[in-house]
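Deliverable D4.2, example record:
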Amino acid sequence: MATGREARIKAAEQRLNRAVDSQDTAAEAVRDAEETVTLAQRRLDGAKAGVRLEELERRLTGQRARLGELAAALEELAPRVAEAERETAALDFRARTRDLEIERLESRRRQLDGERARAREQETRVTAEREALKLGALTAEWGGTAESAAEWLGELPEEERPRTADEWWRVAERRLDQALRDTFPEEDAEVPEELRFLLAERGGSAAREQATFAGVCGALASYLRGQEEYEKHQRRQIEAQLVSRQRDLAAADKGAEEAAQSTAVHRAALSAAIKARLERVAEEFEKLDVSYGGYGATLEFPVPPAPADPEQRWQWRVTPKWRRGEGQGFVPYNRRANTALMDEKAVKLVCAAAIASSGGGHLCLVLDELGRNLGKEHRREAVALFRRIGETYGITVIGALQDDMEPYAIDACGQYVKLRRSSDAMPYNEPPVIVGHDQHADRVKALAAYVDRSGEQPG
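Output generated by the structure prediction step:
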C-alpha cells in the first residue's frame, strides 16, 4: 500500500509539473500575442499618420503656392502704391501753398484798395486848392513848370520862404560852389572844356558871376546828365544781374523746398516700414516665447526724432523685453538675470527676426556658439525651433556647435552635416572632415553604392 501510494504521489507530481509547463507555455503564447497586437496597433497608427502627413503636405503645398501668388501681387503693387502716395503728398503740399498765396494776395488787394481810396481823396483836395491858387499866372511868372515850382517850394523849410533876392543869390552861389566841389572833389579832376572856360570867366565882379551863372549851371547840368545816363546804364546792368540772381535763388529755394518735402515723405515711409518690421518681429518673438514655455516677450522701439543735419545718423534703439512670471510686467534684457535665460531669449529673438525677414524668400541664418550656457531642455528646444523655422519658412541654419550639442542637433534634424578639422595640430588649409547624418539609412547606403559604381574604371 505504501508503494502504491508513493507511485500515485509521483504520478500526481508529474501531472502537476506538466500542467505548470503547459501553463508557462500558454502564458508565453499570450505574451507573444499581446506583443503582436501592440506591433500591429503601432503599424496601424503609423499608416494613419502617413495618410495624415500626405494630406497636410498637399494642403501646405497649396497654401505655399497661394502665398507665393499673393506675395508676387503685393510686390507688383507696392511701387504703384508708393508712387501714388508720393504724388498725393506733393499735390497736397502744392494745394496748401496755393491757398496761402491766395490769402496773401487777398490781403494785399484789400490794402491797395484802401490806399487807392485815400489817394483819390487827396487828389480831390489838391485839385480844389490848385484852382483857388490860380497856378496859371504864377507858373508864367516862375518861368518853369508848375511841377518844378511845387517840388522846389515843397522842399523849402519854413524859415527860408521870406528871403530876399540878394539872399537867394548868395544861397545859389554857395550851392553852386558846393555842387562843383561835389562833382569834382579832387583838385586834378578832369573838368569839361566848356565848364572850365566859364569858370575862368566868372571871376572879377558880382555882375560877371551873375551873367555866367546860368551858363555854368547849364554846362554843369549837361555834364551831370551825361553822368546820369552812364550811371543809369550801370544801374540797369546791376538790376538785370540782380533779377537773374533772384530768379536763380527762387529756383534754388523751390528745389530745396521740394527736396525737403520729398525727404519728409521718404522718411515717413521709411519710418512706417521700420515700425512694421519691428512690430512683426515683436509678434513673432511673443509667439515663439509663449510656444516654448515662456510667459511672453516683446520689443520696445520708440520712434526717434529726425536729425536736423542730414549728415547725422538716424539711430533707432530697440530694447528686447520679456516676462519672468505669469501676470508680471515686461523686464528689459539688460536687467540682472542668469546667462542661460538671456541666451534662451536670444535664440528666440534671432528666430523671430529671421521669420519676420523671410518674406517668402530663402534665407541663411549663421549662428556662433549655439547652445552656450543652455541646459539640456533648452538645448533641445533651441534645435527644435531651428528645425521648425527651416521647414516652415525655408531658412537654412548654419552654426558653430559645441561637441555636446551634436546629439540634440541630430535628433532634431532629419539631415545633418558637420565639418571639423582632423586635428588641432593640422594647418587650417587642410581639407575638413565631413560627418553626415540622415534619418533614412537606406537612402545613404544607396547613394554610397551609386558613388562607388560611378568611380569604377572600365576594364
